[in-house]
Design brief:
Immunoglobulin-like, binds molybdenum atom, 27 strands, 5-stranded mixed sheet, 5-stranded antiparallel sheet, mainly beta, binds the ligand Nc1nc2c(c(=O)[nH]1)N[C@H]1C(S)=C(S)[C@@H](COP(=O)(O)O)O[C@H]1N2, Sulfite Oxidase, Chain A, domain 2, 2% helix, elongated
C-alpha cells in the first residue's frame, strides 16, 4: 500500500448542522459532517486501488476503472457520526441524510468467493498518523459479513457528484445503518477474517459499555455499529415563541438502523398526535404534529422514536438520547 501525502496531517472535522437547521430532506454536501481522525490523504484516482484478501478463494486488486464493471447502485441513507468514541452518554446529534452512489461490495466479493469461516470484513483506509497520542498505521474498522446483504457499498459518489476529497475520494466504504465511523474513507483494503480487527479504532475506541436495566456497567462492551433509534424536532427552533390558542406545527426527523415504527411527541407532559411517514430505502422519516397550546409560559417539546424491533430512544443520557426544545407560549 503506497502512502499518500496527508493534508492536513492531523485531526480534521467540520461540525454539521444543528437540529433546527435540518430543513432539507437531502443534506447538501457543503453542510455535511466531516470527520477525519488522522487528517486527509490526497489520493489521485489513477493511483487508487483496492485489495481484497484474507478468507477469500481468490485475492484480487481492483483499480478505479474496474468498478464500472459492476452494476451501479444508489442508496439514500442516514449518515451519522457517533460523536466521541469514549463518551457514549453524550448525545452528538451529528446527523445527515445523503444519497451514495457506487457498487455493492457483495457483487465484488462474489467474484472473489468468500470462505465459509469469514465472519468479519476489515476495512483499511489510506490515512495514517497520530490520534489521541497514539501512533496509528492506518484507520481500520470492521463489520459482520452478515451485513453485506444490506446495501454495503463501495461508494464513489455523494449526492450525485464524485466524492469530495475529505469524504473519501476516490472511493470509500459505506455501511448504511451503521454509525459513520464504520464507513471507511479512502478505502485501500478489505480483509475477510474470522475475528474482529485488532487496531485502536476497533478495540480501544468505539466499543460502548453494556448497561443493565438499572444502568449499571456490566463490564461487557459492544461495538459502535448499528445506529440506535433517534429523532429530533426541526421546528419550532429552540427559543421560538408560539401563540396561545393557535395551531403550531411541530415536525422533525426520526431514524435508526431499524425503521422507526412510531414517534411520540410531548409538549411538557401533554401528548400530541403524530403523523409519521414510512421509511424509504435507509433514509430518515419525517414526522409532524399539530399542537394548540392552551396556557402561556415556557414549555419543553420533545420527540421519542420507537423502532420496529421495539427499541426506543432513551430519556437517560446516551448518544441517541431524547432531544428537548424549549419554547415560550405567549
Ligand atoms: N479512513 C477513514 N475513514 C473514516 C474516518 C477516518 O478518520 N478515516 N472517520 C470516520 C468517522 S468517525 C465518521 S463520523 C465518518 C464521517 O464521514 P464524512 O467525513 O464523509 O462525513 O467517516 C468515518 N470514516
Ligand atoms: Mo464519527
Amino acid at each position: 500500500m503506497h502512502r499518500p501525502e496527508m493534508n492536513p496531517a492531523s485531526f480534521y472535522r467540520r461540525i454539521p448542522l444543528q437540529p433546527h437547521q435540518l430543513t432539507e430532506r437531502i443534506t447538501p454536501t457543503k453542510d455535511l459532517i466531516v470527520l477525519c481522525h488522522l487528517g486527509v490523504p490526497q489520493v489521485a484516482r489513477d493511483d487508487w486501488s483496492l485489495s481484497i484478501e484474507g478468507l477469500v478463494e481468490r485475492a484480487v486488486t481492483i483499480r478505479f476503472d474496474d468498478l464500472a464493471r459492476y452494476p451501479k447502485h444508489r442508496v439514500t441513507s442516514i449518515h451519522q457520526c457517533a460523536g466521541s468514541p469514549v463518551v457514549p452518554y453524550e448525545p452528538a446529534r451529528r446527523i445527515t441524510n445523503v444519497t451514495w452512489g457506487g457498487v455493492r461490495l457483495r457483487d465484488v466479493l462474489d467474484h472473489c468467493g468468500v470462505q465459509a469461516q469469514a465472519r468479519y470484513a476489515w476495512a483499511t483506509g489510506l490515512d495514517y498518523g497520530r490520534f489521541d497520542q497514539v501512533e496509528v498505521e492506518s484507520y481500520v474498522k470492521d463489520f459482520p459479513v452478515a451485513r453485506l446483504d444490506q446495501d454495503v457499498l463501495l461508494a464513489y459518489e455523494l449526492n450525485g457528484a464524485p466524492l469530495p476529497v475529505e469524504h473519501g475520494f476516490p472511493a470509500r466504504l459505506v455501511v448504511p445503518g451503521f454509525y459513520g465511523t464504520n464507513s471507511v474513507k479512502w478505502l485501500a483494503r478489505i480483509t475477510l477474517a474470522a475475528t474482529r480487527a485488532s487496531g485502536p479504532f476497533t478495540t480501544r475506541y468505539y466499543n460502548d459499555p453494556v448497561l443493565d436495566a438499572a444502568r449499571h456497567d456490566t463490564g461487557r462492551t459492544e461495538p459502535v455499529w448499528a445506529i440506535g433509534p433517534e429523532s429530533v424536532i426541526v421546528a419550532p427552533a429552540p427559543g421560538a415563541r408560539l401563540t396561545r390558542g393557535s395551531e403550531s406545527w411541530i415536525w422533525g426527523w426520526a431514524w435508526g438502523d431499524a425503521a422507526i415504527a412510531s414517534v411520540d411527541v410531548f409538549a411538557g407532559d401533554e401528548p400530541v398526535r403524530v403523523t409519521l411517514e414510512p421509511r424509504s430505502e435507509r433514509a430518515w422519516q419525517r414526522f409532524s404534529a399539530v399542537w394548540r397550546p392552551r396556557r402561556a409560559g415556557k414549555v419543553t417539546l420533545c420527540s421519542i422514536a420507537t423502532a420496529a424491533d421495539g427499541a426506543a430512544q432513551p430519556r437517560e443520557p446516551w448518544r441517541n438520547a431524547v432531544y428537548g426544545v424549549d419554547v415560550t407560549v405567549a
